[in-house]
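Hey forum,

I'm writing up a methods section and want to include a predicted complex as supplementary material. The small molecule is zinc ion. I've pasted the protein sequence and the SMILES. Can someone with a working setup run it? I'll credit the forum in the acknowledgements.
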Amino acid sequence: METPSTPDEAEPAADFFKPTFALILFLSLLACTYSGKKTGKEQALLRSDTGHITDEKKPLAIAKKKKARAKKKIYLTFDDGPNKGTKNVLDIVQEENIPATFFIVGEHVFASHGQRRDWNRLITAENIEICNHSYTHAHNRYDHFYELPETVVKDMEKTREILLPATIIVRAPGRNSWRIDSLQYTDIKKSKLAMDSLQKAGFIVMGWDLEWHYDPKTFQVQNTADEMLTMIDSAFAQKRMRYPNNLVLLAHDQVYHSSADSLQLRTFIQKLKSRDDYELSLVSAYPAIRKHHLITDTIKTVAPAADTAKPVRMDTL
Ligand SMILES: [Zn+2]
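Reply by user p_vandermeer:
Happy to help. Structure tokens for the complex are below, copy them as they are.
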């Protein structure tokens, strides 16, 4: 009696599957080997599908980051407003959509209907920073003014209390002096005590690296837009600035009252904007000030500028 022999019957099948399995294994290995030999471009595409930065893209990203970091910063600052040139300056910086800082004189806000109107425009404008340039501007009698440090501090405090309670950044009238933590510079030694007193009172004193000069008799600019750009290039090339790669430019609102000079300002700004190596910024982003703010933010108790500046109503002035 023949008894079925399962192992014997199974044997032929096993023989059949062995080479098939080997073939599949071989083909799989081949497929794996092929995928491992994708071109660099294919690998980049595969990895970029994950949403992460690919190895191939990393050097490019780092290079871009370095380039962005290496941009030179320029801070456009306009002094002595509000005055008859402020409207033009504000129109231009807003139309060109660039950041600009105005160092205002407290007394000027209350001098006329037009100046009050421009002040109200300044405090509501975007991308604009308003800083303190004293209350009286020393009535242009600087030597006498700086002889009394406590008067200088009081003059700054008056503008701060009435108009700018949120800002501690000031510029001393008629003086290019600096007091930002360890960044210290005094242009006229007789004013040193007054500058030290401002810093002791909690103010940051910012001067400037380059000035767009004007004729004090005609109030016309002494340099064209192109000349200013050349001077800026040269200042960076020769590192003539208080903080490396950061240049503070001083200009005066009043000068741009004339259409010829306001055209120069617009041309200057347009040329600056076309430069990839320059970036315009507000003074609160100045490196030494930004660092300072990190420290003082925790003890800041004053209200935001816009809210507290609003009580300066035109009908009560
Ligand atoms: Zn001034």
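Some notes you might quote in the supplement: The pocket of zinc ion is lined by residues 79-80, 133, 137, 173 (CB under 6 Å). Strands lie at 72-81, 100-104, 128-132, 169-170, 178-180, 183-185, 204-205, 210-211, 246-252, 278-280.
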